[in-house]
Amino acid sequence: MENLLKSENNDSSVSGFSAVDPLYGFIPRKMKTQGVVKLIEGDVSLFTNKSHTPQYKKILKTRKSLPVYAQMEQFYKMYDENQIIIMVGETGSGKTTQIPQFVCYSDLPHVSGKLVACTQPRRVAAMSVAKRVADEMDVTLGKQVGYSIRFEDMTEPGTTFLKYMTDGMLLREAMYDPDLKRYSTIILDEAHERTLATDILMGLLKTLAKRRSDLKLIIMSATLDALKFQKYFSLIPGESAPLFKVPGRTHPVEVFYTVEPEPDYVEAAMRAVLMIHRAEDPGDILLFLTGQEEIEDACRKIKLEADDLVKHNPGSVGPLVCVPLYSSLPPQQQQRIFDPAPPARAGGPPGRKVVISTNIAETSLTIDGIVYVIDPGFSKQNVYNPRIRVESLLVSPISKASAMQRAGRAGRTRPGKCFRLYTEKDFMTELDEQTHPEILRSNMANTVLELAKLGVKDLVHFDFVDAPAPETLMRALELLSYLGALGEDGNITPLGAKMAEFPLDPQLAKMLIVSPEFSCSNEILTIVSMLSVPNIWIRPNYLLKQADAAKNSMTIPDGDHLTLMNVYNIYQRNKFDKNWAYMNYLSGRSLQQAENVRVQLERMMERQEIKLVSMTDEWKLSQGIRKSLICGFFMQIAHREGENDSYVTVKDDQIVSLYPSCGLNKRPEWVVFNEFVLTTRPYIRTVTQIQPEWLLELAQEYYNLSEFKNAEYTTALKRAQAKLGKRSLEIERNHNDQGGGSTSTNKGKGSKKSKKL
DNA sequence: GAGCACTGC
Questions:
Q1: Cβ of A149 less than 7 A from strand B
Q2: Under a CB-based contact definition with an 8 Å cutoff, are residues A594 and A532 in contact?
Q3: pLDDT score recorded for residue A737
Q4: Alpha-helical runs (H) found in A265-390
Q5: How far does the CA of A521 sit from the C1' of B2, in Å?
Q6: What is the pTM of this model?
Q7: Can the keyword Hydrolase be found in this entry's annotation (predicted)?
Q8: CA gap A546, A487 in Å, rounded
Q9: Residue A462 burial (CB < 10 Å; 0-12/13-18/19+)?
Q10: What is the dihedral of CA A399, A401, A405, A406, to 10 degrees?
Q11: What Rg do the C-alpha atoms of chain A give, in angstroms?
């Protein structure tokens, strides 16, 4: 966000352009193709006034061989005549690198003073494409061409005119400048992936295009979705937005199906690997499975079988190496996917590499040299159930689009083969065309708050490409009004506006904002940071005891939130040493990330003048921390009821168990939890003990007991209320008015409003 | 007594 503030005074005169410039006279959006070609092929850069290097000329040759380059004239014609265009270009078309450059030669950002933005769903993509394009344009990365991702702003205000960025980053910018005035053209790349951020951006930009006739939009997507986007972005009712199509350049992939459905896809996949290894030409294999355990298991078994094969028929098959790939794997081990296949034994057949991967290899990571893809047709997908407010991971059949993407991974370097472990009939009739977009599968609390901050409060009439379920929106509105982020009128409150500034879930943002009132914002900042990163605990199968012992030594028995804080503090005392983390069975990567998040959030607190305070009295501090927790998570409370130490969630009445890794040394009657997960059973994860009186004090509206149904926890809460009433009378008598944080929390005024939806 | 598809701010 700093970059936003700095870039406000984006002055075209500092970009090296002046009236005596030999190129003076070019007018934005009036460029002719021949003129552009001349400039690109000329000796002097239009954008830097410097001579092109030999390197530039060399890269230009490759650029000119890209399919998209041959269609420059056609592109400019469509671009000149339309405000919005949809573009499809398959892998290898060069669209991501070339189209933004074409746009720059038309928009002349160094003349207009405006920027061209190109969004990507992933950070690595934004970084690597920006680097490539900077090379192609003969400029230093971070000068004329840069990128902007969380924690890293590689742009120079006033100089950068072509900016690659994550879609989430552009969404953030829109919160501060809803008209996105700094941009002349916005390109949404990989729109077919339908990330939450891309979907929201599409809605905002469609509306914005009507307000800003000078803003151009290019939506780049895979072929299958083009028609949907064409209709959505139509400016004239009944008509479609124009489509610009570029052929891709990949090798053909032959697809095979099984004759009969496979009852056990893991077993079938392993057979397929060995079949390929025995019978097919050299070339590496990529096998898609659904998760870490399945992958590690398959790796072990395939290794055994392959060794067996070699033992019995030495000389007939080459060596086989299995490489697992999933996101929580340490980067160093992820790198192994790029190792070459094992060499042949003397005189024997060549070796082969098998990468067994989650969906990460479908879009995020590209492995060269893959010739065979095995696709069992499943992946794990996150599904949100608004009724019980729970997200869960389910193994589900993939979509046709996903199956095609997987097959394509076999044809990147030469013609390949894809073995689908399902029948052709099932492919045709059982698979959905597209993967359900994220917006239909997610908790929307965060997004609804962002939209409110952007001035969108009428969600029912917001022009979504695909509208989320009304119940999901209702849940989000309900939460936000109880948190005090939305007022009775549905408008964002000052508190809500503050919350929206933080890149956090609303509950976490709320708890951070109120924490100074409990004199523990320093601690809450740490806890919030730790809660925003992936699991920090590492538990290798062969070192379970050691890992658990290390964890126990850091555990605070009052609650997992406090333990997380403790771990961070020890990490800090050990000078943020990765080696210390490793020795203590902690994920260095996650801790480093928590450190980054903490720095970012601390800066944001400073800007919002939220004080960083702490207390020395340990008991008081622990109470303050837990009270802050409740201000954000009063809707995530469970009460111990019945046998087997099980708990019941308040109001939702779900029977849940403490997650096995929970560090509480006893079973407290009341707990606040961070997460409700549904795996083999319903669990609550990251749990801390609390007092019921705090609920009544800090979340009065939500804990209006007269509206509670008769339940064990209702009785217990009423008991607490009676105790509290007696105590408050005593307090009144003593004229003691040091009540604390209850004034800060919202009384949930807006809750009635949200129920109307 | 058990799990973490994948992104992003």
A1: yes
A2: yes
A3: 46
A4: 265-279, 292-312, 331-334, 360-363
A5: 33
A6: 0.88
A7: yes
A8: 51
A9: middle
A10: 20
A11: 29
